[in-house]
Design a protein that fits this description.
The protein is mostly helical. It is built from 36 helices and no strands. It is 70% helix and 0% strand.
Length: 550
């Protein structure tokens, strides 16, 4: 390592006056500190361990009245910060923070870089230690520096510090947001990148999002997603995605841009950079929580841009794309467009692929949204019912995916053609399997949804023999539901029985022999919900012996 690589050697001073000519250029303590630090930096550990003696040497230079020695101290800190693996202490940070506050661009550049390095390359504990030592005030002041290197380093340091939950709050509390927003519009791309990166990290905290919005962050993020820099596009799309979690912020985005933010995000779906496409998807997904945005995204061509992303091998991007599609499918007006654009085969493929549970959940959720009575024929024709059944009965399918798939099938089972199709699946074994899942499936939601499926199947009198004579009879399923004591389970059990009670004589006879009527008659009480009481009364009435008046 060159002897003067850290700038520890003092620069020559200009000749001053005759009285000053014989004054020593350096104090003895300063000279000793320089020599000590030079030897230290030339050792094998290269500065990875900073002893108390070396900290005192750095403090001596940092507190000197000689600006060259301050520069040397700052450069030493910068050199050490790249290699030191131990946690920084308050004694180490105190002189460094003083250097960051010193109004000399060279001192501020090197010292702010050192702080950034300690936060970025050091142990995770460094982030909180730096903030506890009072560095945020000095860094916030650096954001207003005229020197772009100082600005860049200060923003970069805040970006790293803001990965800590506590520090996110402290940075905003310190009043750094207005300066960060100003630097986000800097002409220097490095400063822009670091400022937008810091702002993105701040948006992860809910309370910060309201302060950012108050300070005017949203129009800046909307403007900067049009940047040509992929990193800035990524940071701002991600920031908008986080901001869009709140309804009032989504409304503000629409007011500010008149829908242009949606157009810009849709354009980013065609970016050559995967992470940019992914964040644009996530932002559109959150914005599509509002009905107006759901319509506009489709009107602006969002479906055509989303379609290719559903086939990407990048799991994160594919997950974001199918999540966005799921939110768009909530809007009744978008159902026809999604089906017309041939999304159903792609959704089925994602559902049965088993590539990732989140992808499967969103695929099943999308099918559930599309499964209105108007589109049941298209759903059947595309093979979506079969795909949902295959996933539900696959032993490797996660509970969360089973919950989504069973919920979609419960909606589809209300249609007569779907009922007939389900009864034929797996050579007639699907009904048996779903009856068993009503009582044995893992997860309350899955069991509840399965009861919903068989309850709808009970609407079809032709399926009653299959439901009643299976190994796991629907009557045992209903009995289990009613005996749980859980209000929701009781309600859906009685609801399923009410459908059966409208069947023929043989069905009613079998129900009568099961003594379920006795169980229903014992139920009651003033605290019973009116709807459930009416359902029980109707069911009992249906099950009464028919009187022959002939």
């Amino acid at each position: 390592m060159p002897e003067n690589c850290c700038g520890c050697l003092p620069r020559k001073r200009k000749k001053k006056s005759a009285n000053e000519l014989y004054e020593p250029l350096l104090l003895e303590s300063e000279r000793d500190a320089i020599n000590d630090l030079l030897r230290f930096l030339q050792t094998d550990d290269g500065g990875s361990v900073l002893s108390d003696e070396r900290v005192r040497a750095l403090r001596t230079l940092a507190c000197s009245d000689n600006v060259d020695l301050k520069r040397s101290a700052a450069l030493c800190y910068s050199e050490i910060s790249e290699k030191m693996t131990s946690t920084v202490t308050n004694d180490m940070l105190e002189p460094l923070i003083a250097l960051v506050q010193y109004p000399d661009p060279e001192v501020q550049t090197a010292s702010s870089l050192a702080l950034s390095n300690f936060a970025l390359f050091g142990p995770v504990e460094n982030k909180n230690a730096i903030v506890r030592a009072g560095a945020l005030q000095a860094l916030t002041a650096c954001l207003s520096s005229d020197n772009v290197d100082v600005q860049c380093n200060a923003c970069g340091c805040m970006t790293t510090l803001a990965t800590s939950e506590h520090n996110k709050y402290e940075i905003v509390n310190q009043g750094a947001v207005p300066s960060l927003l100003k630097l986000a519009c800097s002409r220097d791309s490095r400063v822009q990148r670091n400022a937008t990166g810091a702002l993105l990290n701040l948006t992860h905290l809910e309370s910060n999002r309201f302060e950012l919005a108050r300070c005017g962050a949203i129009p800046i993020f909307v403007s900067l997603i049009q940047s040509r820099d992929p990193d800035i596009q990524f940071y701002c799309a991600a920031a908008l995605s986080n901001m869009a979690v709140q309804e009032q912020h989504r409304s503000l985005m629409s007011q500010i841009s008149g829908g242009e933010v949606l157009r810009h995000l849709i354009a980013l779906l065609s970016s050559p950079v995967e992470k940019v496409k992914c964040q644009a998807c996530l932002a559109l997904r959150n914005l599509a929580s509002d009905a107006n945005n759901q319509v506009k995204i489709v009107d602006f061509g969002g479906l055509r841009s989303l379609y290719p992303l559903l086939g990407t091998s990048d799991v994160e991007c594919c997950t974001a794309a199918i999540a966005a599609l799921r939110n768009l499918s909530i809007c009744k007006g978008n159902e026809i467009a999604i089906i017309r654009e041939k999304f159903l085969p792609v959704i089925n493929k994602l559902l049965v692929s088993g590539s990732h549970p989140d992808i499967q959940c969103h695929a099943a959720g999308t099918l559930r949204n599309l499964s209105t009575e108007d589109h049941k024929d298209e759903i059947l024709k595309a093979g979506s019912v079969t795909a949902l059944v295959d996933v539900l009965l696959d032993s490797h399918t996660s509970v969360g995916v089973c919950a989504e798939a069973s919920a979609a099938l419960a909606v589809l089972a209300a249609n007569e053609r779907c009922q007939e199709h389900m009864a034929e699946l797996r050579d007639g074994q699907f009904v048996q399997a779903v009856l068993e899942m009503c009582v044995s499936a893992e997860g309350n939601e899955v069991r509840y949804n399965c009861v919903g499926i068989v309850g709808h199947l009970a609407l079809n009198a032709e399926l009653h023999p299959l439901l009643l004579n299976s190994k796991a009879s629907i009557l045992e399923v209903i009995r289990t539901c009613v005996q749980t004591g859980d209000a929701s389970s009781i309600h859906i059990g009685v609801w399923a029985l009410s459908h059966l009670s409208e069947g023929g004589d043989e069905t009613r006879r079998i129900i009568g022999e099961s003594r379920l009527m006795d169980l229903l008659e014992r139920m009651g009480g003033d605290d019973m919900a009116t709807e459930l009481k009416q359902l029980i009364d109707t069911t009992l009435k249906n099950l009464q012996p028919k009187v022959d008046n002939t």
